[in-house]
Amino acid sequence: MTIERTLSIIKPDAVAGNHIGEIYRRFETAGLEIIAARMMHLSQDQAESFYAVHRERPFFSALVNFMISGPVLVQVLEGDEAIRKNRDIMGATNPAEAAAGTIRHDLAETVDANAVHGSDAPETAREEIAFFFGDDELHSRR
Ligand code: IDP
Fold first, then answer.
1. Which of these, 10, 126, 130, 136, could form a disulfide with 73 (CB 3.0-4.6 Å)?
2. How far is Cα 115 from Cα 117, in angstroms, rounded to an integer?
3. Is residue 64 part of a domain?
4. What CATH number has the domain bearing residue 106?
5. Residue whose CA is closest, atom 6 of ligand 1?
6. How high is the pLDDT of residue 52?
7. What's the ipTM?
8. Where in the sequence is the domain holding 27, given as residue range(s)?
9. Which is the catalytic residue, given 19, 105, 117, 139?
């Protein structure tokens, strides 16, 4: 077993679409435990610094504007290989390329509004979790 933690965001389109429960069910069915959660409406500064790695990409301002267009739900998932498992459940970045049964295939329409974010590696997971949560806000049951 490789117990990991990963940062997940249910993006504005999926919150607006009333898909929070459906997405949480998928996490829990896969054995991922939600050990922290917060609903928030990101500021432009927060969205820009969270996605700073994409600052030079052509889609950066569209991405930031989308992420601040409505409330998001931010959570930390814990479990065996949580980073890879969450990425598998999410599906490919572009919903048109995501496998059937994944969140992005089933609940998202476009690459701009693709329902969920998930950390892609242990180091980014650590940074992204610390971006939103203090250690005293992580309620591991292990
Ligand atoms: P990921 O969310 O699957 O890890 P990244 O490459 O890290 O994908 O991109 C971050 C986010 O930026 C994506 O989830 C998507 O919302 C947006 N994005 C990525 N590529 C494009 C693009 O080509 N056009 C528009 N938005 C994009």
1. 10
2. 7
3. no
4. 3.30.70.141
5. 93
6. 98
7. 0.96
8. 1-38+74-135
9. 117
